[in-house]
Design a protein that fits this description.
The complex is a heterodimer of chains A (114) and B (116). Chain A is built from no helices and eleven strands. Chain A is an all-beta fold and 114 residues long. In chain A, the strands form two sheets. In chain A, strands 2, 4, 5, 6, 9, 10 and 11 form a seven-stranded mixed sheet that branches. Chain A starts with a strand and ends with a strand. Chain B is mainly β. Chain B is built from no helices and eleven strands. In chain B, strands 2, 4, 5, 9, 10 and 11 form a six-stranded mixed sheet that branches. In chain B, strands 1-3-8-7-6 form a five-stranded antiparallel sheet, with no helix packed on it. In chain B, a hairpin with a 4-residue loop joins strand 7 and strand 8. Chain B is globular. The chains are: A mainly beta (114), B mainly beta (116). At the A-B interface, strand 4, strand 5, strand 9 and strand 10 of A face strand 4, strand 5, strand 9 and strand 10 of B.
Chain lengths: 114, 116
């Protein structure tokens, strides 16, 4: 069964550094998402992406965050200048449509900011 | 705005016993509802979804959930727990809005422990 893949599985970065989290969504999917889960807290929506542009973003997704689909397969999340509070598990998801179409998740990237 | 509440952050069941995980939602429009399961060091895997076709929804691994509009609930059940059901379970709601794509709003999760 096709799956969403994320790399790296664990990223350790110094505070203030830039980090790029990578995702390869399911190949025929059109909608792409990033979520994060801070340890012990809920999974939170960050951003959705469709037709090469952001379609919705949460208040968490401030100017430090950006997303990109640089080619036909990758979907990246960049954090420009990381803060301690960015430490979390970041999940990428993709779906083939809207509404009832389920989102398929990757295994996540654990981001640790030192 | 939509929200999801899962009652009980931890549930302990004996192997072979009923598993019942509670989920209540709020949504200003008819929702789509999902249950996901997360095994250790893995991503979220879809168990089942409600999309208004039928109020009782069957999913993978013997799980099912019933949508009750009057109670705004979507509780997850499994008649007989198996050791492999030990995981964290998340209820989520989405709706078709004006933005392309539909964000999921998650509950806090319920960690299930299965005792032999």
């Amino acid at each position: 069964e096709p799956e969403v893949t994320q790399t790296p599985s664990h990223q350790v970065t110094q505070m203030g550094q830039e980090v790029i989290l990578r995702c390869v969504p399911i190949s025929n999917h059109l909608y792409f998402y990033w979520y994060r889960q801070i340890l012990g807290q809920k999974v939170e929506f960050l951003v959705s992406f469709y037709n090469n542009e952001i379609s919705e973003k949460s208040e968490i997704f401030d100017d430090q965050f950006s997303v990109e689909r640089p080619d036909g397969s990758n979907f990246t999340l960049k954090i420009r200048s990381t803060k301690l509070e960015d430490s979390a598990m970041y999940f990428c998801a993709s779906s083939g449509g809207q509404g009832s179409q389920p989102q398929h998740f990757g295994d996540g990237t654990r981001l640790s900011i030192l | 705005a939509q929200s999801v509440t899962q009652l009980g952050s931890h549930v302990s069941v004996s192997e072979g016993a009923l598993v019942l995980l509670r989920c209540n939602y709020s949504s200003s429009v008819p929702p789509y509802l999902f249950w996901y399961v997360q095994y250790p060091n893995q991503g979220l895997q879809l168990l089942l979804k409600y999309t208004s076709a039928a109020t009782l929804v069957k999913g993978i691994n013997g799980f099912e959930a019933e949508f009750k509009k009057s109670e705004t609930s979507f509780h997850l059940t499994k008649p007989s727990a198996h050791m492999s059901d030990a995981a964290e379970y998340f209820c989520a709601v989405s709706r078709l809005g004006t933005a392309a794509g539909n964000k999921l709003t998650f509950g806090g999760g319920t960690r299930v422990l299965v005792k032999p």
